[in-house]
Every structure is written in structure tokens, then in C-alpha cells.
Amino acid sequence: IIGTGSYVPERILTNRHLREMVDTSDKWIVERTGIRERRIASGEETNVTMGRIALERAIENSGIRCEEIEFLVVGTNTTEPVWPSASGHIANLLGLRKDLPFLDVQAGCTGFNFAFSVAEMFIKAGQYRTVAVIGTDKLSAITDYQDRNTCVLFGDGAGALILKQSMSEGIIRSHLGGNARSRNLLILSKKDGTGNAYIRMEGRKVYTFAKKAMVESCFRVLDPSGTADKKELRTLFEQVTKIIPHQANARIIMGAAEELESRLELPAGEAKNKMIVTIEQYGNNSCASIPLALDISLRTGKLRKGDLVIFVGFGAGLTYAANLVRI
Ligand code: UT7
């Protein structure tokens, strides 16, 4: 990873604002999710405009020229209209190479992890040397602000990074997982009388899935063959500096950390202290959450070059995935 960038809209939607919109309270939201505020895109802002700024910042941060990018992969779920793809719009807006290949990856909130893995494969195969990856979503466009089960959770934003082929250790591997049989737990559904489709979620069931999927994916990315015993797995886990989880709910993140500690017989706090949590200010902004947290962590010194990091996500589909990276 030679550069990162991110963007969040200016408008802040606090728990107090939400209290005026649905039957909820700051206390309930903070205790159950860890969220205090989230960013909401303006009418003109889209996943494309946000993704464009994030990528521009990542290019600047990496010190490369736009023309050096050979391939663009965008994880997103909220392109409107659905085609042409967000990646094409962004490539055009930024004036990337005229013949640049680009594609969108739609995998719910796991879209960033899957997009990252697509980039990884092209780089490892030697097909491209410099690849841009973006995670961007405008969930506010598909959130029903009359549904307290969902509207307190979501926000908007974008994060991007530039990957460059290198002889030193970088992306070690990814683990991708899915559970298509449970796809109905998190869907878009038309609201009566409006014609608009909004997110509907069976929160409790997604919660249980998410916690389990995170633990499973962390183990599988460290031990792809599944042959390591507890002691070996613990040694592998101890080498990990930080984990950047998808920011869906602070309780899911901490619950997964406790599960990791119990399964690996680690001292209390050992996995919790590795978890990077930015949800308090941004809520769940889907594909943006991991690259945004990565950018913030690098800029604030929470992460340094050389750290061994796991990006772990889950989301609609249902899908889940992890990427093990020496940053
Ligand atoms: O990006 C990936 C997708 N999404 C997720 O990862 C979300 C996964 N799920 C969750 O994070 C949690 O399930 C929620 C935060 C959505 C809900 O928390 P919970 O602890 O699972 O609560 P619950 O759904 O079991 O509901 C408990 C109570 C219910 O009331 P009753 O039936 O006990 O009277 C809900 O109606 O809380 C009520 N409730 C609320 N109360 C105040 C639900 N939403 C709210 C709200 N404010 N916003």
C-alpha cells in the first residue's frame, strides 16, 4: 500500500437529531451500537463524487501520477443509476488513462475486502503493477428514516488506496466467505406507496452471523489450510499488530474480540486492544468503513509502516472476508 485517502461529507447527523425522527434515544444507540454521529451526503454527493475525492487524496498521498494507475476496482452498493459502473464514472472524472480497465464489486459491506482481493490477484499474477482500490457508499440514499431498526446505524463516506507491486512483503493473502442461504436477512425492499427501496434487516440474526464470521475469517486468513492447533494459531495471532474490522456495531467488534480471546486462551484485552474502532463518529458507511479507518489510523499514527494488519468485513449477501496485509 503506497498511499491512502478518504472523504466524508460535511453534514453530521447526531443521535439527538435521530431522536426527533424516530422513537429512540442517545443512550440506546450508544449502548447498543457505540455510534454517536454519522456523516450524511448532500443531494449532489454520490458514491461516485465521494469515491473520486478519496482516490484523488490517495494518489496525492502516494506521490504517483494518475497515468501510472493501470486498473481500478471499486467496492460499492449504491450506484444510481446502477450502470454504467461507479468505477467508470470515477475514472472519467479523475482523467485516469483513456484505456484504463475498471470494475465495480458488489458484495454488501464486504465489498471493500472483495475488491481488495481482486486487486491482490491481478498484482500477484503480474498483470498490473499499480492498482487503485476504492470503497464508497451512500447508504443514506437507501435508508428508511422512519425505521429505527436501521436508520440509527448508517452513514456515508469513501476510502481509497493505491497498491503497487513490490518485492517486499505486502498483501499476504485473503480469505473470502459467503452464506447465500441467509441472503434474506439483509435486503433492499420496496416501501409501500413510495416505490423506493430501502434496507430491511433482521438485526439480531445479522449480529450473530457477523460475530461468528469475523472470528472465522480472522482464523482462516491466518491459517488457510485450517491445520494449525490452538498454540500455533495463537502465535500467528500474536504477530498481528492491529485489526481493522468493518464498522457496523462496536458491540459486534468487541464481542468478536472476546471470542478470539476465549478461543485462543489469550489474556483478557489482548484481542480487544488490537481492534481499531472509528464507528463513534461515522456509523456504518458500508464499503467505506475499512479504508476510511485505515486512512485515519495511518494519519494519526495508530498504524505504522511495517505493521501486520487484518481487514475483516461482513455484510449483505451474506458475505464475509479478511485480508492479511503488511502495510
Ligand atoms: O453492515 C452489516 C449489517 N448490519 C449489522 O451488522 C447490524 C447487526 N445488528 C445489530 O447491530 C443489532 O442487532 C442492532 C443494533 C440492529 C439492534 O441491537 P440489538 O441489541 O440486537 O437489539 P434488538 O434488535 O434485539 O432489539 C431490542 C429492543 C427491541 O424492543 P423490544 O422488542 O425488546 O421491546 C427493539 O424494538 O430494542 C428496540 N429497538 C430500539 N429501541 C430504541 C430497536 N431499534 C431501536 C432504536 N432505539 N433505534
What does this structure look like?
- This protein is about 35% helix and about 25% strand.
- It has 11 helices and 13 strands.
- The longest helix has 20 residues, at about 205-220.
- It is α/β, with parallel strands linked by helices and about 325 residues long.
- It is globular, with a radius of gyration of 19 Å.
- A 5-stranded mixed sheet has the order 1-7-6-4-5, sandwiched between helices.
- A hairpin with a 6-residue loop joins strand 9 (about 185-190) and strand 10.
- The mean pLDDT is about 95.
- The structure holds oxa(dethia)-CoA.
- Oxa(dethia)-CoA binds near residues 28, 152, 204, 206 and 248.
- Oxa(dethia)-CoA binds near residues 24, 33, 109, 207 and 252.
Q: How is the largest sheet built, in terms of strand order?
A: 1-7-6-4-5
Mean pLDDT: 97
Can you give the helix content as a percent range?
25-40%
Main sheet characteristics: 5 strands, mixed
Number of helices: 11
Shape: globular
Q: Please provide the count of β strands.
A: 13
Strand content is: 15-25%
Low-confidence runs (pLDDT<50, min 5 residues)?
none
What structural category characterises the helix and strand content?
alpha/beta
Bound molecules: oxa(dethia)-CoA
Rg (C-alpha, Å):
19 Å
Order of helices and strands: EEHHEHEHEHEHEEEEHHEHHHEE
Report how far the terminal alpha carbons are from each other. Answer: 6 Å
Task: Tag the structure with descriptive keywords.
327 residues; 5-stranded mixed sheet; binds oxa(dethia)-CoA; alpha/beta
How would you concisely characterize the structure shown here?
The chain is an alpha/beta fold and 327 residues long.
